Amino acid sequence: MVSSLQLGPEGFAPYGLARAGPVWISAFGRVDPGTPAVLAAGDAPYDGWKVVVHPDPNSGGTVNLSGTQCSSGKAVRFCYGGCDWNSRLQLSVTKLSVDVSTHLDYTGYMVFPGPGLMRMIASDSHGTLGTVVIEVPQVSS
Predict the structure, then answer these.
(1) Residues 111 and 96 sit within 8 Å (Cβ to Cβ)
(2) What confidence tens digit (pLDDT) does each residue in 5-16 have?
(3) 12, 19, 16, 100: which is closest to 55 by C-alpha?
(4) Fewer CB within 10 Å: N-end or C-end of the chain?
(5) Strand order of the sheet with strand 49-55?
(6) pTM higher than the cut 0.90
(7) What is the pLDDT of residues 49-77, one digit of tens each?
(8) What's the rounded Cα separation, in Å, for the pair 40 and 108?
């Protein structure tokens, strides 16, 4: 089941963002908290959806963000930090290491296996810190 968006941290309020433990995910448009976590549809292809990962301002340390498509178990891939649109399919990785201590946004692309529900998991060496289920809508080709 798709998660509901939460009131975003300072700088994002009053809009809703998806939260997985110490990371916030922003790509839903200007929507209210409580709205289902469905990515803002546009002409974004599944193999490169621009998504901002925002560290929680009250968190520290390093977190790994990973994701899987709920229906197939296929991995979501991440193209951030030195990975650009032209190299996203070759250089994307299955885990994004986020230094939440810096409190700096990570801007890049998530490469989804297709439409549907994606379970995003934030973890560290001690285990899972949080999960959120977002929906990647069907886009017209």
Answers:
(1) no
(2) 999 988 888 899
(3) 100
(4) C
(5) 6-7, 16-20, 23-26, 49-55, 106-111, 77-79
(6) yes
(7) 899 999 999 999 999 999 999 999 999 99
(8) 16
